[in-house]
Write the structure tokens for this entry.
Amino acid sequence: MRFAIAALVFAVTLVAIVTRPRRIGEAWWALAGAALMLVTGAVTPLSALQAIDSEWNLFLFFLGLMLTAAVADMAGFFDWAAGLAAAAAGGSGRRLLFNVFVLGAVITTFLSNDATAIILTPVVYTIATRLRLRVMPYLFAVSFVANAASMTLPISNPINVLTGDHLHASLAVYEGHLLAASVAAVAISLVIFMAVFWRSTGRRFEFDWRSALTGAIADRTFFRLVVAGLCVLAIAYVVGSALLLPLGAIAVAGGAGLLVIAVSRRRLSREHLRAHVSPTLFLYIAGLFVLVRGVQDAGITTALVSGTISHANTAASAVFAGLLGSAVISNLVNNLPGILVLLSGAQAGGVAAALRTPFLFGALAGADLGPNLTPVGALSTMLWLVIVRRRGVEVSAWDYLRLGALVAPLTLIAAGLLIAGSFR
Amino acid sequence: MKALVLIDGLHTADTLDSLARLLNLGEAELLLVYVQGPGPRAGLDLVRRRPGGHQLPPHRERELAEAEHEGAASALAEAEDRARRLAPSVETIQLRGEPGRAVVDLAVQRRVDLIAVRAGGVDQARAGPRSLGPLARFVADHSPCAVLLLRGR
């Protein structure tokens, strides 16, 4: 009975999170699902608290990332970086596409995929629109590289932090398994993008780079201090990953330090903080943790993971089981609940000890790269398409999906092969 | 003849040269129209969708609107410069909204004799199924006057 109740609440909540009935945000549906888990007794209050408490590192990491991105945006860092990418393109739309891709990869590596997808996209939109270039190839490039480059460092994607807490892998071990796969994913995506958009980005443009770069920075001292702070934070992340220090604490310390710089330069903008720091995201994650704990306590995640890995008897096959399982769930719903289910099942004994590490590295890669197939989960993407079509909007969303159908399988296969090879 | 010419900012020279080749513009009155449609913003919305409902900060909203206005103004200025060499009367108009509907409404309001529109958007040069594209198809379906369909070279 408990099994059925937990499974039903979990499934209904996930559908509500994805479809967002009555335009109510996903956080409230996740919280409602968590409350139902508690009311029905599928999860005890103590177990729910433990589920949230045990992932404090992830909460801190999200907070630190948001603060960092907000201050970097206040200083004009993203506008300056995009201006630099446009200046270095030398008037070529194709070279700009290449530069935007590289810029997206660098920002994703050190500031996370969310910073790239949420903050860099409107900046790139502004530049491409001003230059009268086709906007969509550049927006797609930012969106795809935000996923493709998100395996590079443990801080490049919050999912890496979450999975890293379960793996207890040092930076050397992490990079030993994932660096080659990450580089391959970025390179494959870049080649596909340049080939697909070669013709439509052929237009040349004139760009006043001096005024663009100086216009992006309102306070030079503030900008320099923030860039120095970001460099220190990047080094701290690398050292922290190497020493297995909690990355959430480093992220919050870095974000707080940048906030102090903004206050001391009288550049603190509530507008930026409100836009970049999303309290509902914490509610969403907390709700998901309780939901997943409910299905974990009912033995569902263990059964699911056992089924996913049932045919795997080597490290290589465990990598592919994790990769495919994670990519499929990420596309059905979203990668965060997807990886939570797999981590929970693996932790609860769904995977043999010898196969646990390769399975989790594969799952991490699937959750990072898989979302390139359908950007916000298959169901959610389809709903979005239906809505914009009804509004009569001519948008290249089908192009987006076609691109994903090309990029995602190739990057997943390449990553799977390279990660599997790293376990030999 | 009063002709409404849809300018997309990417194929101005091609569009106006084709028009001059096909029609006698010696006494024509050209309305050059640029419509800022919701498509690109919907694309931005798609690629920014992440849990947590991240809104665009107000200053970014202003920047996006300014960039859209600047891009449209620059496209129309280029088109006007070229069109003045072809026709005695040229007017530029910047609109916002769903492009097909905006163009048809303007054609009704200004009682134009002809709407010139490129087929298939940006990259579709060949004829064939679905090659009209939503905008040209809408205009062809709803136009109150003759429609001149231009194909890219």
Notes: DSSP finds 21 helices and no strands in chain A.
